[in-house]
Amino acid sequence: MGTAISLDLADDLPAGTLHELAEQTFGWLREVDARFSTYRDDSEVCRFDRGALPLAEASADLRAVLERCADLWRATDGFFDAYATGRLDPSGYVKGWSAQVASDRLVEAGAPNHCLNAGGDVRVRGRSATGEEWRIGVRHPWDPLATCLVLAGTDLAIATSGGYERGEHVLDPRRGTPARGLRSVTVVGPDLGVADAYATAAVAMGRAGITWLDHLPGHQHAVITDDARLLHSHALPLAPPDSG
Description:
The chain is an alpha+beta fold. It has a single domain (5-232), classed as Roll (T-fold), CATH 3.10.520.10. It is 34% helix and 23% strand. It has helices spanning 15-36, 44-49, 60-75, 91-108, 192-205, 208-214; strands spanning 5-9, 114-118, 121-125, 134-139, 147-153, 155-162, 171-172, 177-178, 182-189, 220-225, 230-232. Strands 1-2-3-6-9-10-11 form a seven-stranded antiparallel β-sheet, covered by helices on one side. The protein has a two-stranded antiparallel sheet with strand order 4-5. Helix 1 (15-36) packs antiparallel against helix 4, helix 4 packs antiparallel against helix 5 (192-205) and helix 5 packs antiparallel against helix 6. The longest helix is centred in the N-terminal third of the chain and has 22 residues, at 15-36. The termini are far apart. It catalyses: L-threonyl-[protein] + FAD = FMN-L-threonyl-[protein] + AMP + H(+). GO terms for molecular function: metal ion binding; transferase activity. Pfam families: ApbE. Its cofactor is Mg(2+). Keywords: FAD, Flavoprotein, Lipoprotein, Magnesium, Metal-binding, Transferase.
């Protein structure tokens, strides 16, 4: 998926079991990459986009993703648009969705304590190996070695979108130009795929995305504007300062 993925399994399970769970997780994510990559001509999404694969012959996963993207297009007044670039690119939902599915599978397999980080889209469940809540740093948009916020919790889906890592890849679908106004948007909610899409939509909206996020039920957010202002919802699960 063009990004680094890390997995921290914190359950006290046999080494062989942990290894197998990790292999299953990364196997699933490799499968998603092969199916949804916009860089590989033989991927299912590319074959569908150029008309070489009829919808009736597409996988259940592709059909489900296309349906969910259509739902999210309606929910965001068109600002989450899998066709914003002129070709099909559901990456703004797929990365979070695939990590959410992987996390759900880990819980079902008896590993309810884990942290999965897919290029800044993070799903945490349970507690870390120390028994503490997971702490998740949100990258500073101008300093790749610093964080601007640290979040903490035991059941969080955290998605961040912005133009600081892959350049101006989020477009305003109404103008067809790179989005302006918000340098970084982080959305926290119960489902990582939805949070990923909402973060992308808010960046596409520009400054109007701040008001939209303020009225988004069931989610919290943090926004850094192009002029370096940090704004966040009151209920954002911020980590307490380190003692000492």
